[in-house]
Specification:
Radius of gyration of chain A: 25 Å
CATH topology of the largest domain in chain A: Rossmann fold
Radius of gyration of chain B: 20 Å
Largest sheet of chain A: 6 strands, mixed
Oligomer: heterodimer
Number of helices of chain B: 14
Number of domains of chain B: 1
Strand order of the largest sheet of chain B: 1-2
CATH superfamily of the largest domain in chain A: P-loop containing nucleotide triphosphate hydrolases
Strand content of chain B: under 5%
């Protein structure tokens, strides 16, 4: 750090090393009483890939928004290439050479790639010359950086990975020297993520500076040169990636020791709890979403379903949870007894009655009613339970409140206030409320989708522990997740879904991310390959 | 129906379709930018009253037109303020402005002229007169096309030709210029425009202003060309018909021309009960009121989605809030 300070000072001397591409000095930003950024200082060396990690709400997004001109900082200074720079709007950020690839792409879906690229960077009042120029530039960029995209394709027809390339192309077309990427791999398959990293390395080799915001520590370790950690609005450390470890980064992020992999003993599978045979689902548009799923789960084991989002995992959870959409055929048996796959006898209520609990993928729409209080959400779905009834007519709200207080205590929900609406809790605490409701019913089968999406790293550990504990208590668990890390660390068996089918089953000890990634991309492994 | 009758009906189709076309293109600019405007009707009505009144006082159709555009722009500015700056509900703002226009036009006209809410009849230079195109007389003898040129194409008001010219101009603006690209983008995904460093607010105000100008021309045409002066509620739902035509046209300029001319044709037909009677089979007579209702019936059918799926601009109706 000391030497970096000196290079900053002597930036004007002739052959001196380049000043930091980005330097922030004492950036602070408050929203009302909440201080999102407190006195942030950071230097990003030119031509490096610099990671920024932190939990949700640590202030990463606010900091990036300040860099891209969405917010003005209350205090502090921004230096780009050593020059003090004021960034009141996105136009100024672009002029300063900053390009941003947002987590949610800012593309016009029914525009062509070319139109999206020139939007806002046209060369004159008429489009024709701009389009011709962009076509040529895109061809050059595609050649230099493996950024191939059909310039005439409509963006809505592109895969997510290609849409992301369009965003990168947009930034490069505007001559960005600094590229900020916000959670770029969240929506990508492992293959697409690898390709993205190759692109980023190519850009780095050309002298571009890359700022990578992610919560995936593995990616930080793989691609960054340096990494800065944010916690509760403060920059707590900047370290050289080669000198750190995921464990150290996690500890810096959370402020205490965190177990990235919850210890779990070997599974002790018992009787068969769930059997699914030849399950098909066709949606309202006539698209077959599940194409003959067969699987079994035994008591005391976790079956992990890996796959890129949108390959039928959601439909599988919906059918098993009792709210299938579309036409369903096939057989589902729980503890040896066949249950209706769809129709009148297949509702959330009937599923719950036979001991199936469901922690849905989309907790904001299916898991909680955000405007309802925590205690109401705890009762939700189990509101006819005998312990919640005062008499034949009325519910016993006090009993529910007391029960909620107990659950909040046991699941470490913060703040432990049953009367707060669900929307006032952080993502992790919302998920704990859902988990508490479902797990404490001691289900024979727990369906759980994306249990840690949008959940902080500290809470992830807690949630994983609870799922493993439930398994050890003898429940069968069906875990659907797009996070391979999560699948690998929790599952006793892994099934990979692609295009509505199960591509294969693996044991976690006998597989790796590469093999799973291929299966997720629909590439069937030939027997005997590693 | 003989050819002469058809030519007559087509001529009035063009006359009656013009205000619909202007209002429809007006709505196109606004909605393509993501601002729904149910207040086309109110703006046309205000413009009709203002242009009728000012043309009567000044004796000049041109000054009347300027007054109409000004009045319509004023209403457009209020709609813009409500829906862009204050992020209000665009439907409610539009409906409110329609109510205000309905009452205010009669009130102002009655106060100023005391003729039961109408403006004095216009003649001479206070009206846009029919223009006879070159060779109209000479070519009228040419079979088939001659009468069409002489009676349909020629002999219309200047504003009709202006409206027709606005169609290709709008197409060119929308698909061949930087402004058009940004306008279409802001109605689909304003964030894409904002992050590209272009002002969403300014683009949307520009679009709303264009809507104001075109509604102003439409209203002025009603009072100073189609008819000779303003009469109470003279727009008679044309703003809503234009909206239906806009959906029918799937927010595209050339299709807007065909859609509005179809509505214009139905309105022209309603003015010719003799033709309908002649075409009615046997003793069955189609009541005139049914013919009057036809354009509105078609509006309902279009709005109910019987013309296939029309995908409106994706960001339509949603105020833009900058956030991450």
């Amino acid at each position: 750090m000391a030497s970096a300070t000196e290079t900053g000072r002597q930036a004007t001397a002739a052959p001196a090393p380049r000043p930091p591409a980005i330097e922030l000095r004492g950036i602070s930003k408050s929203f009302g009483a909440v201080q999102a950024n407190k006195d942030i200082s950071i230097r990003v060396r030119p031509g490096t890939i610099h990671g920024i990690v932190g939990e949700n709400g640590a202030g990463k997004s606010t900091l990036m928004s300040i860099l891209y001109g969405f917010y003005r900082a209350d205090a502090g200074e921004i230096l780009i290439d050593g020059r003090p720079t004021v960034i009141p709007d996105s136009q100024s950020a672009i002029r300063a050479g900053i390009g941003m690839v947002f987590q949610h792409f800012k593309l016009v879906p029914n525009f062509s790639v070319l139109e999206n690229v020139i939007l806002g960077a046209e060369d004159g009042a008429l489009l024709r010359p701009s389009l011709a120029k962009a076509r040529k530039t895109l061809a050059d960029l595609a050649r230099d950086y493996e950024l191939d995209v059909d310039p005439d394709a409509l963006v809505e027809e592109l895969s997510v990975g290609h849409q992301q390339r369009v965003e990168i192309l947009k930034a490069l077309y505007r001559h960005a020297d600094i590229l900020i990427l916000d959670e770029p791999t969240g929506v990508l398959t492992p293959d697409e993520a690898d390709h993205l990293f190759r692109i980023l390395r190519g850009l780095k080799a050309q002298g571009k500076t890359i700022l990578l915001i992610t919560h995936k520590l593995r990616e930080i370790m793989e691609i960054t040169d340096e990494v800065s950690v944010m916690r509760r609005g403060e920059m707590v450390a900047t370290v050289t990636t080669a000198d750190t470890s995921p464990e150290q980064l996690a500890e810096l992020m959370v402020g205490r020791k965190v177990l990235l992999h919850v210890p779990k003993g070997p599974a002790n599978p018992g009787r068969e709890v769930l059997r699914v045979s030849d399950l098909h689902v066709t949606d309202a548009l006539g698209v077959e979403r599940l194409k003959g799923i067969n699987l079994t789960i035994r008591a005391g084991e976790i079956l992990g379903i890996a796959g890129v989002a949108g390959n039928g995992q959601s439909e599988l959870l919906q059918v098993l949870g009792g709210f299938a959409k579309g036409t369903v055929s096939g057989m589902i048996a729980v503890e040896g007894a066949q249950i209706p796959a769809a129709g009148k006898g297949a509702t959330g209520q009937t599923r719950r009655q036979i001991g199936i609990s469901h922690v849905p993928e989309d907790r904001h729409h299916l898991g909680l009613i955000l405007d309802f209080a925590a205690w109401e959400n705890i009762a939700f779905g189990y509101h006819s339970a005998p312990e919640y009834q005062a008499n034949a007519l009325f519910m016993d709200n006090d009993a529910i409140l007391r029960d909620t207080e107990g659950k909040m205590d046991r699941f470490d929900v913060r703040p432990p206030d049953p009367s707060l609406p669900a929307k006032s809790f952080s993502g992790g605490n919302q998920q704990k409320i859902v988990l508490a409701r479902e797990i404490e019913r001691n289900p024979v089968l727990l369906l759980v989708g994306q249990p840690t999406r949008g959940v902080d790293i500290g809470a992830i550990e807690f949630i994983h522990r609870r799922i493993v504990e439930l398994r050890d208590a003898g429940a069968a668990v069906l875990l659907v997740s797009v996070e391979l890390d999560e699948i690998l660390s929790l599952s006793d068996r892994i099934a990979v879904m692609f295009d509505g089918q199960i591509m294969g089953e693996r044991l976690p000890a006998e597989t790796n991310e590469r093999e799973l990634g291929l299966l997720m991309a629909g590439v069937a492994r030939t027997a005997g390959a590693a | 129906m003989d050819y002469t009758t058809l030519i007559e009906i087509l001529g009035s189709t063009l006359r009656l379709g013009t205000p619909l076309l202007l209002a429809c293109i007006a709505g196109l600019y606004s909605e393509r930018a993501g601002i729904f405007d149910i207040g086309l009707e109110g703006k046309m009505l205000m413009a009709a009253m203002a242009s009728g009144a000012v043309a009567a006082l000044s004796g000049s159709a041109w000054i009347g037109l300027a007054a109409g555009i000004t009045a319509s722009l004023l209403f457009a500015a209020i709609h813009g303020l409500a829906s862009i700056t204050f992020r209000g509900n665009q439907l409610i703002s539009g409906v409110a402005l329609n109510f205000v226009a309905s009452g205010a036009t009669i009130l102002i006209a009655q106060t100023a002229f005391g003729q039961g809410g109408r403006t004095p009849p216009l003649d001479g230079a206070a009206r846009f007169q029919a223009i006879t195109l070159p060779f109209a007389e000479a070519l009228s003898g040419v079979p088939f096309l001659g009468p069409f040129y002489a009676k349909v194409i020629s002999g219309q008001s200047l504003l009709v030709y202006l409206a027709l010219a606005i169609v290709p101009a709008t197409w060119w603006l929308l698909y061949r210029t930087r402004f058009g690209l940004r306008l279409r983008a802001v109605g689909e995904n304003p964030e894409s425009v904002d992050t590209a460093g272009v002002s969403v607010i300014r683009l949307r105000y520009t679009a709303v202003a264009l809507t104001g100008v075109l509604c102003g021309i439409a209203g002025a045409y009603m009072a100073t060309s189609l008819q000779a002066g303003f009469g109470r509620e003279m727009t008679a739902g044309r703003g809503y018909i234009a909206l239906a035509a806009l959906i029918f046209a799937k927010w595209r300029p050339w299709q807007a021309l065909w859609a509005t001319m179809l509505f214009g044709f139905l309105q022209a037909l309603a003015l010719r009960p003799d033709v309908i009677e002649a075409m009615s089979p046997g003793s069955l007579t189609i009541p005139v009121s049914f013919l009057d209702a036809l354009p509105y019936l078609l509006t309902v059918i279009v709005l109910a989605g019987f013309v296939g799926r029309a995908i409106p601009p994706r960001a339509g109706g949603q105020p833009y809030v900058k956030e991450r």
